[in-house]
Design goal:
The structure holds 2 protein chains of 2 kinds. Chain A is an alpha+beta fold. Chain A has 5 helices and 5 strands. Chain A has 2 domains: 76 residues, Roll (Ubiquitin-like (UB roll)); 72 residues, [2Fe-2S]-binding domain (DNA polymerase, domain 1, Orthogonal Bundle), CATH 1.10.150. In chain A, 33% of the residues lie in helices and 15% in strands. In chain B, helix 6 packs across helix 7, helix 14 packs across helix 15 and helix 16 crosses helix 17. Chain B has 3 domains: 163 residues, Aldehyde Oxidoreductase, domain 3 (Alpha-Beta Complex); 322 residues, Aldehyde oxidase/xanthine dehydrogenase, molybdopterin binding domain (Aldehyde Oxidoreductase, domain 4); 139 residues, Aldehyde Oxidoreductase, domain 4 (2-Layer Sandwich), CATH 3.30.365. In chain B, strand 20, helix 13 and strand 21 form a beta-alpha-beta unit. Chain B is 28% helix and 25% strand. The chains are: A alpha+beta, B alpha+beta. Chains A and B meet through helix 2, helix 3, helix 4 and helix 5 of A and helix 1 and helix 16 of B.
C-alpha cells in the first residue's frame, strides 16, 4: 500500500492482522495505532474525541480485547490481531449490534458509535445475555454526548435478544 | 399519514454504524498540507511582534500566515463582528490567534508553532465580572466592558413586593459549560477553479460563507462552504472556528489544507455557556398567588461578543418562565472579561434563568409551607394568558406537561425511605418554557426547495445543517408526505452554499418549524403541479386526485389511476417545472428599549415538565440520579423515536450541568481543558430516561410541530437541583452541585458535622 503521508516518520515494518487480513505497513515506532489506522491505512471509522484514553471513541479490539487505540503504540500490535468498526459487518450484512443500533435510534451524531459498537461486540461475546447494569459497566469507557445512553442500552439488549433467538 | 408521526429510520445512520461516514477530520487527500494556529501567550497582552526565525527553520514548514495576509475585515462574530481572525496588537483571551502555520505534516506544524516567539507586554487581567466593573478596570473594548444591557418593566414590582404577604430573595450562581461535542473541530479546504471550497462543520453555512468572505475580502461567490457529517454541535459550532484559517491557507497557497484542533485547543478557543449570577426576588400573596418578581442578571461575556446580546435578551425575556407574574422588573448586563468568550449553547439564557425561577418558586413554597406542585399549579399560565413580555400564549401547556410527568412518575405513590442510613432520597419537579427561534424582531427565515429530479426521484434541498439531531430525515418526511412517498425514497441535498437555498441556523430549536414549514410549502406547490397535470390526463378535478407513491389515483374513484412517471412527463410537457422554492419568514417583534415588552417576542413557546429522583450521600455530598421523567409538549412528534432521543440526550446534558460540568477558569486560564478534567456524564451516571411526548398542536408549525432541541436540557437542571434540595432540606443555588458543593451546604447548616475524610 502506498503511503499517503510520506513526510511522516518511518522505520518499523509492522505486520499484523487487520479485520481478518494480513497487513504490512511501514510506521514510525513512536506513532499510535490510532494514527496508523487513520493516517496510514485510511480506516477513518475509528474516531478520536480526546486522544488521552477518556472518551472511548477510538476503541478497537486487540486480540479480542477492547483497547483505546490512541494509547497503544503501533509496534505493540506487531504479530497480533486488530478489529476496527470496519471489520464488524459480515460483508454487506450488518452485525446484530449494528442492526440493533439502527433499529433502536441509538445513533444521533454517530461520532461515538464506532467505539461503542466495538466495545459492545466484546461485551456480548463475553456475556451474551447481559443485564442493564452489566451493559452499563461494559460501556462505561465510552462517552456519548447526544443520546443520553438510553437507546444505546436498548440497542445492546435488543442485539443480545436477537442473537439468542437466532441461535435457538 | 405515510411519514408524519412515524419513527422512520434516518438516512444517515447506515454509514455511521459501518464507519464509512466521513466527518471533517476524515477528509484527506494526497499532497494535503496541515495547518495549526499560533495562539495568545497571555490572556491579556499587547502584542509587539512575532519572532518567526526558529519556526521557519523547522523542516516541512510551508508558510506562516498572519493578519498581513488577510485582504478583508480580519474579523468575524455573529452579532458584532468584533472577533479578530488574527489579533492586531492586542490579545484578549488565551484562544486568540496571532497566526497560522502551514506545513507538510501535523508534527511539523506543531513544532513550528511551538517555536514561534510572540513578543508581548502583559496587561492586567480582567478575570471576573467584579474585575470588569471595578474602579480603574482596563477597558477591553473601545466602548468599555459592558457589552449589552436588557430590561423588563411591567407593572410596579417595587410596590407589589412591598405589599406582598411573602417575599423570598435568592442568589444563584451558574457555571460556564463546554459543549463537549465529540467531533473536535476539523476540516479540509481546497481551491476548485477559483472558488475557496471549505468542508468544515458549523451551524449555518450561509452565514459562515458571508463571514469568511468578509474577513478574507473575497466576493461571496468565491467562497463555498460544504458541511460534512457532523459529530454534535449544541451551539458550539455557531461561532466561526477553523473555517477562515482553512480558507486563507487554501487561497494563499493554492493547495489542499486540512486542520484539526486537539481537545485542549477546542476547549481553550471555543466559546462557552455564559456563567451567570442572578439575584431573584419573588413576592406572593398568602394564598400563593405570585404578585411580583425582581430579577438582576450578570453575565460573563468573556473576551468577545459572540451571541451574547441575544443570550442576555433570552435570559431576561424568560425570567419568569411559564408563570403568571403581573409585576416584573428585570435588569441584565453582559460584561467583558479576559475569559473564553461565551455564546450559544443549548438552552442559551433560558436555561440559566430556569434554575433561578424554579429555585425561587421552591423557596417560596418553603416560606409559605405549601406543596411546591400545588404552588406551580396555581401560578402556571393558562391558554391565552400573557407572558412577562406581555406576549399572549395560545397554547400554554405547562399544566398538561406537569400532569403528564407526574402521572408517568407515579408521583402519589413515591417512596420516602432511604436504602441506607447515610443516604437521603429526594424528588424534584420542574416546569419550564422556551421561545422558539431567534425572535425579538430578527428577520429569521428558512428556505426549502422541493423538486422531482429528471430520474423521477423526489428531492429536497435545504441549507440547514445536520449535526446529529435528524433534521435531514425530518425534511424528507415532510417533503414526501403530500405525495405518499416514504422518506427513505426522498433524496436529500443539503448544507452546501453552492447547491442549496439558505435555511438559517440549526439553532434556537428553529429548524423543525422554520425549514419544516418552508419545505412543506415548496412540496405543496410541486404537489399542485403534479395534480394539475394529472387532472388533465385523467379528466378529474385535481382535488379528487392524490399521489400515492408511484401512482396518481382517484380519491373517490379507485378505478382511475396513472403512473406517477407518466404524470411527471405530462407535467413537464405542459411546462410545469416540478420544482419550487419557498420561504418561511414569520414576523416577530423586537422588545421596546423602555420596557423590554413585545407582543410577539417569539413565534411560539414550548412547555415542559420534569420529575427527578435522587439519592444524596449526606456523608460525602455525592448525588446519584435514580430516575428522570421528562414531559414536553412539542405540538406534534414528526418522528417520535428521534424526539425521544432528543429528550434523552438533552436530559443527560442537563444532568451534566446540574452535577458535574464546570469550566474552571483562573486568571483567564481554563484549568480543566481536557476530558480527563472536564467531566461529562458517562453511561454509569445517567439513569434510563423516560421521555413523555405531549402533543397539543401548534398554530404555526408544520403538522402542528414545534421542535424539541433545547427544552429537555432546560427542564432537567432545576428538577435535579430541586430533588437534591428535597433530600437534604436545604437550598441548592449554585451549579454544578458537585459532591464538594453539596457537602459544604450540608456542613454550613450543621457546622459540627465532621470534616470530610477526617
Amino acid at each position: 500500500m502506498s503511503d499517503p503521508n510520506p513526510t511522516r516518520g518511518h522505520g518499523f515494518a509492522l505486520r499484523f492482522t487487520l479485520n481478518g487480513s494480513a497487513t504490512s505497513v511501514e510506521v514510525d515506532p513512536r506513532e499510535t495505532l490510532f494514527d496508523t489506522l487513520r493516517e496510514r491505512l485510511r480506516l477513518t471509522g475509528t474516531k478520536g474525541a480526546c486522544l488521552e484514553g477518556e472518551c472511548g471513541s477510538c476503541t478497537v479490539l486487540l486480540d479480542g480485547a477492547p483497547v483505546t487505540s490512541c494509547l497503544v503504540m503501533a509496534p505493540q500490535v506487531d504479530g497480533r490481531s486488530v478489529v476496527t468498526v470496519e471489520g464488524l459487518a459480515e460483508g454487506a450484512r450488518l452485525s446484530a449490534l449494528q442492526a440493533a443500533f439502527v433499529r433502536a435510534g441509538a445513533v444521533q451524531c454517530g461520532y461515538c458509535t464506532p467505539g461503542l459498537l466495538v466495545a459492545a461486540t466484546a461485551l456480548l461475546r463475553d456475556n451474551p445475555r447481559p443485564t442493564v447494569d452489566e451493559v452499563r459497566r461494559g460501556l462505561a469507557g465510552n462517552l456519548c454526548r447526544c443520546t443520553g445512553y438510553t437507546k444505546i442500552i436498548d440497542a445492546v439488549l435488543d442485539a443480545a435478544r436477537v442473537t439468542a433467538e437466532e441461535k435457538a | 399519514m405515510i411519514n408524519i408521526g412515524r419513527s422512520v429510520t434516518r438516512g444517515d445512520v447506515q454509514g455511521k454504524v459501518t464507519g464509512e461516514t466521513r466527518y471533517g477530520g476524515d477528509l484527506m487527500g494526497p499532497e494535503v498540507l496541515t495547518a495549526t494556529v499560533i495562539r495568545a501567550p497571555h490572556p491579556h497582552a499587547r502584542v509587539l511582534g512575532l519572532d518567526l526565525d526558529a519556526a521557519r527553520a523547522v523542516p516541512g514548514v510551508v508558510a506562516i500566515l498572519g493578519r498581513e495576509d488577510i485582504g478583508g475585515s480580519n474579523r468575524h462574530g455573529l452579532i458584532k463582528r468584533d472577533h479578530p481572525v488574527f489579533c492586531d496588537d492586542r490579545v484578549r483571551y488565551l484562544g486568540d490567534a496571532v497566526g497560522v502555520v502551514v506545513a507538510t505534516s501535523i508534527e511539523a506544524a506543531r513544532a513550528a508553532r511551538d517555536a514561534v516567539v510572540v513578543l508581548h507586554e502583559p496587561l492586567p487581567i480582567v478575570a471576573t465580572m467584579a474585575d470588569a466593573v471595578a474602579e480603574g478596570a482596563p477597558s477591553l473594548h473601545e466602548f468599555g466592558n459592558v457589552l449589552a444591557t436588557q430590561l423588563i418593566r411591567k407593572g410596579d414590582a417595587e410596590r407589589a413586593l412591598s405589599e406582598a404577604d411573602a417575599v423570598v430573595t435568592c442568589v444563584f450562581k451558574m457555571q460556564g459549560v463546554d459543549h463537549a461535542f465529540l467531533d473536535i473541530e476539523a476540516g479540509y479546504a481546497e481551491m476548485v477553479d477559483d472558488v475557496i471550497t471549505i468542508h468544515a462543520s458549523g451551524q449555518w453555512v450561509h452565514e459562515e460563507q458571508r463571514l469568511i468572505a468578509l474577513a478574507l475580502g473575497v466576493p461571496l461567490e468565491r467562497v463555498r462552504l460544504v458541511q460534512p457529517p457532523t459529530g454534535g454541535a449544541f451551539g458550539g459550532r455557531e461561532d466561526i472556528s477553523i473555517q477562515i484559517y482553512l480558507g486563507l491557507a487554501a487561497l494563499k497557497l493554492g493547495r489542499p489544507v486540512r486542520m484539526q484542533y486537539t481537545r485542549e485547543e477546542s476547549m481553550v478557543a471555543r466559546h462557552k455557556r455564559h456563567p451567570m449570577e442572578v439575584e431573584y426576588t419573588l413576592g406572593a400573596m398568602a394564598d400563593g398567588t405570585f404578585t411580583a418578581a425582581k430579577v438582576l442578571i450578570r453575565s460573563d461575556e468573556g473576551a468577545y461578543a459572540s451571541t451574547g446580546p441575544a443570550v442576555l435578551r433570552k435570559a431576561v425575556s424568560h425570567c419568569t418562565g411559564p408563570y403568571r407574574v403581573p409585576n416584573v422588573t428585570a435588569d441584565g448586563v453582559a460584561l467583558f472579561t479576559n475569559n473564553c468568550p461565551t455564546g450559544a449553547m443549548r438552552g442559551f439564557g433560558a436555561c440559566q434563568l430556569a434554575i433561578a425561577y424554579e429555585g425561587a418558586v421552591l423557596a417560596m413554597a418553603r416560606r409559605l409551607g405549601v406543596d411546591v406542585v400545588a404552588l406551580k399549579r396555581k401560578n402556571l399560565l393558562r391558554d391565552g394568558e400573557q407572558l412577562t413580555t406581555t406576549q399572549v400564549v395560545p397554547v400554554a401547556s405547562g399544566l398538561d406537561c406537569l400532569d403528564a410527568a407526574l402521572t408517568r412518575f407515579g408521583w402519589e405513590g413515591r417512596r420516602t425511605d432511604a436504602p441506607a442510613p447515610h443516604l437521603r432520597r429526594g424528588y424534584g419537579v420542574s416546569t419550564i418554557c422556551f421561545g422558539v427561534g431567534y425572535g425579538d424582531g430578527y428577520p429569521d427565515a428558512s428556505r426549502g426547495r422541493v423538486r422531482f429530479a429528471e430520474d423521477g426521484v423526489l428531492e429536497v434541498y435545504s441549507g440547514g445543517v445536520e449535526v446529529g439531531q435528524g433534521l435531514h430525515s425530518l425534511l424528507a418526511q415532510i417533503a414526501g408526505e403530500d405525495f405518499g412517498i416514504a422518506s427513505s425514497e426522498v433524496r436529500v441535498i443539503a448544507s452546501d452554499t453552492h447547491a442549496t437555498p439558505e435555511s438559517g441556523s440549526s439553532s434556537a430549536t428553529r429548524q423543525t418549524v422554520f425549514s419544516g414549514n418552508a419545505v412543506k410549502l415548496a412540496a405543496g406547490e410541486v404537489h399542485r403541479q403534479v395534480l394539475d397535470a394529472a387532472a388533465v390526463m385523467l379528466g378529474l378535478h385535481w382535488e379528487d386526485l392524490a399521489v400515492r407513491g408511484d401512482r396518481v389515483v382517484g380519491l373517490h374513484d379507485g378505478g382511475v389511476s396513472a403512473t406517477l412517471s407518466s404524470v411527471l412527463r405530462a407535467a413537464r410537457e405542459r411546462g410545469f417545472a416540478l420544482d419550487a422554492t419557498s420561504v418561511y419568514k414569520p414576523r416577530t417583534v423586537a422588545p421596546t428599549d423602555e420596557t423590554g415588552r413585545s407582543p410577539r417576542a417569539f413565534l411560539t413557546y414550548m412547555f415542559g415538565s420534569h420529575v427527578a429522583e435522587v439519592l444524596v450521600d449526606i456523608e460525602t455530598g455525592e448525588v446519584r440520579v435514580q430516575r428522570i421523567v421528562a414531559a414536553h409538549d412539542l405540538g406534534k412528534a414528526i418522528n417520535p423515536r428521534e424526539v425521544a432521543g432528543q429528550i434523552e440526550g438533552g436530559v443527560a446534558q442537563g444532568l451534566g450541568m446540574a452535577l458535574m460540568e464546570e469550566v474552571v477558569t483562573r486568571q483567564g486560564r481554563i484549568a480543566n481543558a481536557s476530558f480527563t478534567d472536564y467531566i461529562i456524564p458517562t453511561i454509569l451516571d445517567v439513569p434510563t430516561i423516560e421521555a413523555v411526548i405531549v402533543e397539543r398542536p401548534d398554530l404555526e408549525g408544520p403538522y402542528g410541530a414545534r421542535g424539541i432541541g433545547e427544552p429537555p436540557l432546560i427542564g432537567a437542571v432545576p428538577a435535579i437541583l430541586a430533588a437534591i434540595s428535597d433530600a437534604i432540606g436545604l437550598p441548592v443555588h449554585e451549579t454544578p452541585a458537585t459532591a464538594e458543593r453539596v457537602w459544604r451546604i450540608l456542613r454550613s447548616a450543621s457546622p459540627t458535622a465532621p470534616l470530610s475524610g477526617s
